Each structure stands twice: as C-alpha cells, then as structure tokens.
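USER: Fancy drafting a protein?

ASSISTANT:
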Amino acid sequence: MSDGMQKLLFDPMKHPEWVAPHSPEWYKQLFEEVGEYRYPWKSQFEEPRAEMIFADKITTYLGAGRLLDVGCGHGEFALQFALNAREVTGIDIVEGFVKNWKQN
C-alpha cells in the first residue's frame, strides 16, 4: 500500500470455531475426525535425523528396562521399543489413540 499502512490479515484465533493446537479439545477433535493420532515423525532432513538421534539415546538408556511414553498418540514411538523393553506403557489425553495402537 502506498500510504504506509499495512494490510492486516485475518487472525484465525478470533474465529468462533478456533481450537488451540495441542490442547485437550484439539486432540479430542482430531480423534473424532480422524480416529487416530497421525504424525509419522519422519523429517525430511539428511540423516541422522533428530528422531533417529533421540531413538538411539533411548535405546542406550533403556536396555531391557521399562518405558513410559507420555503423550503416546498412536504408539509409533513406544512400539518401536516394545521388543527390547521389559515393559512399555503408553498414556495419552485421548483414550481412543491408545486403544488404536497397531502392533507390527
């Protein structure tokens, strides 16, 4: 704009149906619409990616111990360690995510 004024874009947080991301309501809505927590957690960066480094650290400390995954979603991370751990427990704010864990 030539008069020095900036054009303001619509603030989505002011929409009447706005749900704050990663709030309990947001996760509940995600489950109701999709039926599971879908987040493949696979970045597009060259290896080693952050999730690979994190998994290596967990493996180092885990041994044959117990793993608690808080905010486990669909269980992809917890299930990755299920064969090596003595016990794996996943909890999530949305019960349906945990019920939909898929064993490989």
